[in-house]
Amino acid sequence: EVGVKPNEMVYDLGSGDGRVVITAAQKFGARAVGVEISPKEVTTSREKITGLKLDRLRLSQDHAPRHLFVP
Fold it and tell me: I want to staple 32 with a disulfide (CB 3.0 to 4.6 A). Which of 24, 39, 52, 61 is the partner?
């Protein structure tokens, strides 16, 4: 049991090919943010998300540890 509810926010640091954020949106109705350092992986993820017509997701090509701390 994952415990993610509709409209909850899911963060995936090191999101790779986007499977976690995509599943969170498709299966659970969650909003999701993926952070991935690899431009190639971000491009692949964005293509998948566009093809699936998912608008509840955001991907960032960035270094994940920077997202762990709030100033």
Answer: 24
| Percent above pLDDT 70 for the chain | 86
Q: Which residues contact 19 (CB under 8 A, 6 or more apart)?
A: none
Question: Contact 13/35 with Cβ under 8 angstroms?
Answer: yes
Angle ∠(55,60,66) on CA atoms, nearest 5: 135
3-state helix, strand, coil in the chain (%, to 5): 40, 25, 35
DSSP-H helix ranges across the chain: 19-28, 39-52
pTM of the model: 0.83
